[in-house]
Specification:
With 295 residues, the protein is of the alpha/beta class. The chain contains seven helices and eleven strands. A nine-stranded mixed β-sheet has the order 1-2-4-3-5-6-7-10-11, sandwiched between helices. A two-stranded antiparallel ribbon has the order 8-9. A hairpin with a 2-residue loop joins strand 1 and strand 2.
Length: 295
C-alpha cells in the first residue's frame, strides 16, 4: 500500500514539474469562435471553441459542460473562460457547450418526480451528444485529434456527462467513437451497472465530502426521503471510485475535507493545474494509477 502511495506521489510530482517546464508563456494568443450546433423550435444551442493561435492542427480537446442545476449557468462563465486560456497555454483546445436548461423556473427538488429528474439528465445528455457529433463532423473547422477528446462537467454538467457516458442510450455519437477520458466536478450517476471493464475510461473526479446536493458517496438527489416523489438514488464520486477499484481501473479522485457542493477552499488555479496534469498523463500515455488526494 505504501509503495503504491509513494508511486502515486512520484507520478504527481513528475507531472507537475513537467507541466511547469513545458508551460507556455502567459501571452499565448487564444482564438475563440462561436458555433450553432443544434436548433430546436425557437431555441438555438451554441458552443464556444477556444484554441491557441500558434497551433493549427491535431489538437487534443477538452469539451466542458457548465453547471447550474439544469436551470441556469452559462458556457462563458469566468472560471470556464479562465480554464480555456490555461488549456491554450498548454497546447489544448477547449469547447464550452450550452444545453437546454429544462428546469428553468421549475422545481428540481423533492417535489419533482424521479422520472422527471432522469428526463432532465437525458435531455442534457442528448444535447451534449449533438455537440460532440457536430465537432466530429466538422474536423476541417476544429482541426482536433479525434483520439484525444476528453469530456468534463461540473455539478449538473457532471451529472449530464456521466449520464451520457454510462446510462443514456445515445443514438447520435458514432459507435466507433470513444472518449479518451472523463472529468467530473461534483457529479453523480443513477447506476453503476454500466461501468464495466470494457466501458470504463480514465476518470478524474473532484468532490466535497460534505456535499448536500449531490452525494459524495451514495445517497439521494437533494437528500430526498424515500417517501417523497423526488427520491432518486445517486452514486457520487467516492462510489464511482470504489467501483473502479473493484474493476482494477485507473482513477484520479480529489476529495475536499469538509467540502460542500462548491468545494469551498479549492482555488480555480489549483483546479486547472490538476486538470492539466491529468490531461498530460493521458497524452503522454503515463501508466494510469489509482490516485486519491485530499485537500
Amino acid at each position: 500500500m505504501l509503495k503504491r502511495v509513494f508511486k502515486n506521489i512520484m507520478l504527481l510530482c513528475s507531472l507537475f514539474f513537467l507541466n511547469c517546464e513545458n508551460k507556455r508563456k502567459h501571452n499565448t494568443v487564444v482564438e475563440k469562435s462561436t458555433h450553432t450546433y443544434r436548433s430546436l423550435n425557437s431555441e438555438t444551442l451554441e458552443l464556444d471553441y477556444y484554441k491557441p493561435k500558434e497551433n493549427k492542427d491535431n489538437l487534443p480537446l477538452l469539451i466542458y459542460v457548465h453547471g447550474g442545476g439544469f436551470a441556469n449557468g452559462q458556457r462563458d462563465e469566468k472560471v470556464i473562460v479562465s480554464l480555456a486560456h490555461k488549456l491554450a497555454e498548454n497546447g489544448y483546445a477547449k469547447i464550452a457547450v450550452s444545453y437546454r436548461l429544462t428546469r428553468a423556473n421549475k422545481d428540481f427538488n423533492c417535489n419533482t418526480s424521479a422520472n422527471d429528474k432522469i428526463k432532465t439528465f437525458n435531455e442534457a445528455s442528448e444535447d451534449i451528444s449533438h455537440a460532440l457529433n457536430y465537432v466530429l463532423e466538422n474536423t476541417a473547422t476544429f482541426k482536433i485529434n479525434k483520439d484525444k477528446i476528453v469530456i468534463a462537467g461540473e455539478s449538473a454538467g457532471a451529472e449530464a456527462i456521466l449520464n451520457l457516458m454510462y446510462t443514456y442510450r445515445d443514438t447520435i455519437i458514432p459507435k466507433e467513437f470513444k472518449f479518451a477520458g472523463l472529468i467530473s466536478r461534483a457529479g453523480a450517476l443513477t447506476s453503476l451497472d454500466n461501468i464495466t471493464s470494457q466501458s470504463a475510461i480514465p476518470t478524474q473526479l473532484f468532490h466535497g465530502e460534505n456535499d448536500q446536493l449531490v452525494p459524495y458517496n451514495y445517497g439521494s438527489h437533494h437528500n430526498c426521503n424515500k417517501n417523497e416523489d423526488g427520491y432518486l438514488e445517486l452514486y457520487g464520486s467516492k462510489a464511482i471510485v470504489n467501483h473502479l477499484k473493484q474493476l482494477d481501473k485507473p482513477y484520479y479522485l480529489v476529495t475536499f475535507n469538509n467540502g460542500n457542493h462548491g468545494m469551498h477552499g479549492f482555488s480555480d488555479k489549483s483546479y486547472s493545474m490538476e486538470i492539466i496534469n491529468f490531461l498530460k498523463s493521458l497524452d503522454q500515455k503515463v501508466n494510469q494509477e489509482q490516485i486519491e488526494l485530499r485537500y
